[in-house]
Specification:
Blueprint lengths: L8 H10 L4 H7 L9 E4 L2 E7 L7 E7 L1 H14 L4 H14 L4 E7 L3 H4 L4 E7 L4 E6 L5 E4 L3 E7 L7 E8 L8 E7 L2
Antiparallel strand pairs: 1-2, 2-10, 3-4, 4-8, 5-6, 5-9, 7-8, 9-10
Keywords: Signal
């Protein structure tokens, strides 16, 4: 069930520049300070780290952005970068079709380039009862930003997922148990 947001090259360039408006959130997820049992806020949602400790040389963090904010971000980027109406329509159509459940952004940092390879990671989305709703196995082409021992990548969730759900990130090199689990809940 590995579905990615596929965009023609011209829209792809605009997509990556659209990420700029989320840079503050992106910088925040690159910090190691997020112990198990504590919460972070992300675009109107609270994310509780249930399992998976960070260390100085091994960081695994996430953020989440729901579809309405992704649409708002695309419109703002379109205005700033002077997209045509057609370019914006294509982007919005892709978001609504392949990102209806929002976007999970993942930042990983490891002691070696091999351990940081995106292909070592699988993202699971589960509902409040723990039933799997979506799974994505990452590959090196998924990385938005790669700096050897760290990667930033994202998954667009193609189904609606509700206001309470779990995201697990499995580090295949540390199997058999899911390494990182987060409870995401919409703030009231």
């Amino acid at each position: 069930m590995n579905k990615r947001l596929t965009i023609p090259l011209c829209i792809g360039v605009m997509f990556f520049s659209g990420i700029a408006s989320s840079l503050a959130q992106t910088k925040e997820i690159m910090k190691a300070r997020w112990p198990v049992g504590t919460k972070q806020e992300s675009h109107g949602f609270t994310i509780l780290r249930e399992t998976g400790d960070n260390a100085a040389k091994q960081i695994t963090n996430i953020s989440y952005m729901p579809l309405p904010l992704l649409i708002e971000e695309a419109k703002t980027t379109a205005e700033t970068e002077k997209w045509t109406a057609e370019q914006l329509a294509i982007r919005l159509s892709k978001l609504q079709g392949q990102g209806s459940g929002g976007r999970v952004q993942v930042y990983i940092s490891r002691p070696t380039t091999e351990a940081a390879n995106a292909s070592n990671f699988t993202l699971l989305v589960e509902n409040e009862q723990g039933k799997e709703l979506y799974r994505e196995e990452f590959d090196p082409e998924t990385a938005l930003q790669s700096a050897g021992r760290s990667n930033l990548f994202e998954a667009y969730i193609p189904i609606e997922i509700g206001s309470i759900f779990y995201v697990s990130l499995i580090d295949e090199l540390s199997r058999p148990t899911p390494s990182y689990r987060f409870l995401i809940r919409k703030k009231d």
